[in-house]
Amino acid sequence: xxxxxxxLGNICRSPIAEGVMQHIVxxxxxxxxxxxxxxxxxxxxxxxxxxxxxxCRQYGIDISHQRARQFRSSDFDTYDHILVMAADxxxxxxxxxxxxxxxxxxxxxxxxxSPGKQASVPDPWYGDESGYAPVFDLIQRxxxxxxxxxxxxxxxxxxx
Length: 160
Ligand code: 4NP
Hints:
By secondary structure, the protein is α/β, with parallel strands linked by helices.
């Protein structure tokens, strides 16, 4: 299984989702590929935001090696599922979908917790560092729910 997490800048939300989901699938012994990308190229080549790195590190997840890259239409060929963090991201990603089959690979990340609600993960970029812990918590719960959705297994990882 190949899963791509997508947000705007690929430095705050989707790097956390990539790191957490990789951690979960590794704990499960699954050989899945988990990556992330951003719809814009403002931060291409950059490391995740220091507050994203910090909150992940607090829970034993190192995301310092990640580098931001822009989402591209060929990602529809590479990945089985494309999980988007927000409505604006959904719009930009789906505009690049080459077919109806490709479009069906795109899901709102939070639909694993609230199916069909198309809710957005709040973007901590626009606030101070205190915004990152609740976002991590939400993403961690969302990733656990995706693992259960895809496999039927209850994930082991829990921050508490
Ligand atoms: P992200 O947050 O999409 O979660 O990585 C953002 C990071 C940077 C910008 C916007 C959102 N920006 O406009 O530079």
